[in-house]
Amino acid sequence: MASIIDAIGEDSEREGLVDTPKRVAQMYGELFSGLAEDPSKVLATGFEEGDGEMVVLKDIPFSSICEHHLLPFHGSASIGYVPSGRVVGASKLARALDILARRPQMQERLTGQLADTIFGAIEPDGVVVVLRAEHMCMSVRGVKKPGAKIVTTATRGIISTRDATRRDFYSLLTQA
Q: From the candidates 10, 69, 74, 123, which is the catalytic residue?
């Protein structure tokens, strides 16, 4: 970090910048803390309640760091799953998202990893994940298009194969 400060023409020994490398290292430790965590573990606590009707958690805020430029991307996630006898608390789904997001990421990979984690951990009949995010590498540099969002989806199980089930999920997303 000191080399970057020097490379942009600043003095890394200046009072306001002298501790910046240490602060940045601590920040990245926090931002990438998901590397040391297993998101499946938070989904291990559940309830034998699932009746085969879709469960949807929508508009979950998240942020991550793009591995290409080490700049943030942030947005919201919507998760749907069709239980096969087992459900998990909504906070567990959000926690699994947070763990996966706190890694150097690509939005496309994050979407698939979350779907795979839910599908593997709670073994539902189907899972769908939709992420909508604004990428700072596109908003504040390069093409400079603030407000543009990337939307990614991942489906597993019956949601991949049953159009009606997939339509049900998207219909629920538009409801308040």
A: 69
